[in-house]
Design goal:
about 80 residues, mainly alpha, 3 helices
């Protein structure tokens, strides 16, 4: 999606694409794998918020609240 996203949000799309790839490869029986997904979600929280704001402002779309990462709890690795 990043290659066809508008330039002003391309980096955000790229970050979310990485997030989805990480989530797609998670091993739910491996705590380190689960932590990697949590860390990636935390790291891409701002990108998701930026895309929601951009869609609202540019397209009039309401994508809803961004959830998933608890911004009060920092990642434990990386």
């Amino acid at each position: 999606m990043g290659e066809v996203a508008p330039l002003e949000v391309q980096e955000n799309w790229d970050q979310l694409s990485t997030n989805l790839k990480t989530a797609n490869s998670v091993d739910i029986n491996d705590p380190a794998s689960m932590q990697a997904v949590a860390d990636q979600a935390y790291a891409t929280q701002r990108a998701a918020e930026n895309l929601v704001d951009w869609a609202r402002t540019t397209c009039g779309l309401e994508l809803g609240p961004v959830g998933g990462a608890d911004s009060s709890a920092p990642p434990t690795s990386g």
